[in-house]
């Protein structure tokens, strides 16, 4: 007995990237004390994110959302 080939719907496998050149988005799971969402502002030829003064000296992780 031979298994029959079936067409697979790509959407059934998982989410497809908006731009195929970029690849699929990655899911991150992090644990922490607080979370804030900010927009990166221009600072010369780089970007800058302002955080609360109480976070100075603390470990933070930055994840680009788009």
Question: Would you mind describing this structure in some detail?
Answer:
This protein has about 70 residues and is low in regular secondary structure. Helix content is about 5%, strand content about 10%. It is built from 1 helix and 2 strands, in the order H-E-E. The chain has a two-stranded antiparallel ribbon with strand order 1-2. The protein is elongated and about 65 Å long.
Radius of gyration: 20 Å
Task: Name the overall outline.
Answer: elongated
Number of strands: 2
**Largest sheet data:** 2 strands, antiparallel
Straight-line distance between termini: 49 Å
Briefly note the structural class of the backbone: little secondary structure
**Helical percent range?**
under 10%
Arrangement of strands in the largest sheet: 1-2
Mean pLDDT, rounded to whole units?
A: 82
Number of helices: 1
What string gives the helices and strands in order?
HEE
Q: Beta-strand percentage?
A: 5-15%
Regions with little confidence, pLDDT below 50 for 5+ residues: none
Essential attributes:
little secondary structure; 2 strands; elongated; 66 residues; 1 helix; 6% helix; single chain
Quick recap:
By secondary structure, this protein is mostly loops.
Topology:
Blueprint: H1 10-13, E1 41-43, E2 46-48
Antiparallel strand pairs: 1-2
């Amino acid at each position: 007995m031979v298994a029959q080939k079936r067409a697979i719907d790509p959407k059934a496998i998982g989410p497809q990237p908006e731009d195929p050149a970029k690849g699929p988005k990655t899911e991150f799971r992090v644990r922490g004390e607080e979370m804030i969402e900010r927009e990166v502002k221009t600072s010369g030829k780089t970007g800058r994110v302002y955080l609360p003064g109480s976070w100075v000296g603390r470990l933070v992780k930055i994840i680009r959302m788009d």
